[in-house]
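Team,

Forwarding the record for the chain on the shared tracking sheet. I've put the sequence and predicted structure together so nobody has to dig through attachments.
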Amino acid sequence: MRILQTTALALVLGATGAYATTTDITLGMVLEPPNLDPTGGAAAAIDEVVYANVFEGLTRFASDGSVIPGLAESWDISDDGMTYTFHLRDGVTFHDGTTFTAEDAVFSLDRARADGSTNAQPGLFADIASTEAVDDTTLVVTLAQPNGSFLFNMAWGDAVMVAPESAETNATAPVGTGPFAFDEWVQGDRVDLSRNPDYWGDPVALEHATFRFISDPNAAFAAMMAGDVDAFPNFPAPETLSQFEADPRFNVIVGSTEGETILSTNNQADHLGDVRVREAIAHAINRQDIIDGAMFGYGTPIGTHFAPHNPDYIDLTDLSAYDPDRSRALLAEAGAEGITLRLMLPPPSYARRGGEIVASQLRAVGLDIEVTNLEWAQWLEQVFRGHDFDLTIVSHTEPMDIGIYGRDDYYFQYHNPDFNAVMDELTATTDPAARSDLLQQAQRIISEDYVNGYLFQLAKTGVANANIEGLWENAPTQANDLTAVHWTD
C-alpha cells in the first residue's frame, strides 16, 4: 500500500492570498465513517468519502439530483414495468485489476437482498425477484411488481457494485470501480485516495484526495483559516461563515441537502406510544429558535419527513406549531406530566447545539429531560441498532427516504398499516401525478401521528479555497463527489 507523502495544503504566495495550482486536495469532514463499505453501514460519512469516488452503481445521482447512467450506460424497461435490461459499460475493472461484468452485478444485488444482509437499506432491493447475467455486459433484473423508483433506488450508495473477491474486506480496504482508489485509512485522522489510472471514464483532474476528520467546530475554523484543509463541504461552524465571506481567499457555498433533521422518537418507549405525548412534544418545540440558536439561521422549518425543495412536499408545520399551553394540556390529559425522557445526542453540532435548546423547551412544559452525549459508534450501537433511547436528534440525509416509516424494525419503531398500504401502492405506481398524491398522503399520515418531532431541513453550508471549482452546491445524496473538482490558476 502506497502511503501518500504529499499534502494538499494550498501554498500561500505572499500577502495577496493567491494560491498555487495543485492536483491534490484535502477536505474536512465532521464525522469519521465507522467503515468504508457503503453496502454495510448506515452512516452518511461512509458515502461522503466513497460515493462516486471509490464505488459506483448501475445508476448514480448527478449534482442536481437527477438519476443518470453509472456502470450501466443504458437500460430497457419492459412494457409491464417488471423487467429491466441493463447494458453495462465494457472494459470496466475494479481497483484490484479484476474485470467488472454482469456476474458482479448479480452478486452485488443478490448479496444486498439476501437473508442476513448487513445492507442498511434492504427496502431498495425488496422488489427484485431475480437477477440474470445474460452475458458479460447484459444484466436482466426482474421485479416481483412494478416499482417506479427502481432506477432511483439503484443510485443510492447502498446499491453500489462490489466484487466477490473483495466484498468481505471493503469495510477497511474498499475496492471499487471509481475514478479514485483507496490508499490508506489512518483511523482518527484521515482517509487517503489516489487517482485510478485505469478508470473507464474521463480521468479526474485530482491526483490525490485526503479526507480529514475534524469534529470540533473551532478546530474546523482554525484548519480552514490556516490552510490545513482546502475545503469543508459541510462546515460545522455556521456562525463563522460571515468571516469567510469577507475573506477573498475563500468561497462560501450555501445549498440544500436531503437532510431532514428530526427529534427522533422511540414510539415503543414508555409513554411515547401515546400519540398525545408525542403531539405534546411537537407543540413544545419552537423550530425557529433551534434554527437560529443551533444553525445561526441556516435551515428550513419542516413539519414532516420530506425535503421542502422536492416538488411533492407539502407544508405541514402548522400541525405541530409552537404552542406550549397545548403541550401542557396534552401531557395532563395523558397523565404524563413530569415524566423523565432520555435525550441521546450524537456528535454533530446541529445535534449537540440543537439538543440543548430542545431540552430547554421540553423542560419548560414540565418534562424531565436527561441529556447524554454519545460518540458516533455509541449512537449507532445503542440508539440505531439497540433502540435504547427515548429521544435523539439526527439528520436523515438519504434521498427521499420517507419509506423508512414502513420498516417495523427501524429505530424509531413506528407501526402503521395505513402508512404501509400507501407505500405499497406507491411502489406499484408509475404515473407521476398518482405518485405525487401518494407521497403527500404519506407525509400527512406521519405528521398527524406525530411520529417524530420535525425540526428543519439541514442546509449545506460549505467553505472552500476560492481557487477550487466543481464541488457540489446542493447535496442530493450524502457525497463529496470529486469527479469534477479541480484547481484554477
